[in-house]
Amino acid sequence: MRTLSFVVVLIALATGAAAHAQSSGGIRYKWRDGQGLTHYSDSLTGDAMKYGYDRVNDQGMVIQHVERQLNPQEQAAAHKLVEQQAAQKRAADEQARGDAQMLAAYPDEASFMASQQQALNTIDLQMSTTRINLHSQERALTELLDRAAENERGKQPVPKSLSDSIQQQRSVVAGQRNALEHQQAARDSAAQQAAQQLQRYRELKAAQSQAQP
Questions:
Q1: What is the pLDDT of residue 19?
Q2: Between the chain's N and C termini, which has fewer beta carbons within 10 Å?
Q3: CA-based radius of gyration for the chain
């Protein structure tokens, strides 16, 4: 009779264990804490999520690894990295579109260089116009200064209107010189950019030729 009761108990325990395994799908959670100690549990705990965990089956095989939760600083760094990667992808996509448009617009190097030279010629024309204006304004300033010098040589005071005109003309001349400096800087930058673009164009054409059968 005792033997029968013992068997019944064993059956009940086995049935309960099987039911628990079935309800949990035989999945347990395994993780290491801050001291490197391994822990197991049948449900997720705060420490498991804090340190990261593995999902293991009833044979102890890892079926999924879940990284630990990130702190606010790590989350911000991860978000920044994602934004940087997205920006890099946008830049790469934009470069690819620009390359395709350049190859489509200029079938050969001669046409490409002609377009570049035309852009530089436009800047050169603007600079030439500014130089002409600058020389004109400098002559006007020289004339005003000569008039003031005549008064000084004649021991006569320089009229206020003449002094004001000289000051105003000096500002005009300074503005023209500043404009010419900016145009020269823009011209230098455009020439440098043109050289880089030409090199890029040659690389694309070479790659295009190699890709063709």
A1: 37
A2: C
A3: 41
How many residues are present in the chain? 213
Q: Is-contact 56 30, C-beta < 8 A? A: yes
SS3 label, residue 212: coil
Return the SS3 of 157.
coil
| CA distances (Å), origin 34, targets 40, 44, 51 | 15, 17, 7
Domain boundaries, the chain: 26-76, 88-211
**Residue 3 neighbours by CB under 8 Å, 6+ apart:** none
Structure tokens at 184: 């020269």
Asked if 27 and 55 count as a contact pair (C-beta separation under 8 A), the reply is yes
Average pLDDT over all residues of the chain: 85
pLDDT above 70 for 13: no
Evaluate if residue 186 carries a pLDDT over 60: yes
DSSP per-residue letters across 22-75: HHHTT-EEEEE-TT--EEEESS--HHHHHH-EEEE-TT--EEEEEPPPPPHHHH
What pLDDT, in 10s, does the model give residues 25-41?
567 888 788 788 888 88
pLDDT at 16: 39
Degrees (nearest 5) of the Cα angle 137, 143, 148? 130
pLDDT at position 136, please?
A: 97
CB 201 within 8 A of CB 106: yes
